[in-house]
Amino acid sequence: MLLKLRLATIDDAKQVFLWRNNPWIVSLSSTQKQVTWEEHSAWFHNVVTSEQHLLLIIQTQLNVDAGIVRLDRTNKEQAGINIYLLQEFTGRRIGVQAIKKACDYGFEKWPITNMNAYIRQDNYPSISAFAKAGFVCVNPSLNCPSKHCEMTREKTVYSAQ
Q1: Among 72, 80, 75, which Cα is nearest to 52's?
Q2: What 3-state class would DSSP assign to 137?
Q3: What are 114-157's pLDDT values in tens digits?
Q4: Mean of the pLDDT values across residues 1-29?
Q5: How many contiguous H segments (helices) and E segments (strands) does the chain have?
Q6: Is residue 160 part of a domain?
Q7: What residues make up the domain containing 90?
């Protein structure tokens, strides 16, 4: 399935809030907690207006929204990546494509050399998707939360095109 990514806008705030608090997404998240509208609104405004973040809406070839990918610039050379798909879009390699395309976008936008992901150790589908997208497991850094796997991908690994 072909997909595209588009930059999120303020108009996407409510939809992303509903997705973020979807019980299935919450069950797979690092915090496993829902967020309030106030928490989400402040976070969302910061992310869509900052040069240090890219919030991308994943869309199918039929322009159906399927989830998000977020890139967060952590320093001069690195950015973090987070993704979630709505449950009905899992298992179709959409996640792998979205990760690849988002990395390409981030590497083009910022002069970074590495993209990092922190994934719960029991989230095997995400670990698999990141591996298929060119990420490799590395020894956890101090930034890696407890019970998480740290994966990284260097700029030169692939191009999604």
Answers
A1: 72
A2: strand
A3: 999 999 999 899 999 999 999 999 998 888 989 999 999 999 75
A4: 92
A5: 5, 7
A6: no
A7: 3-154
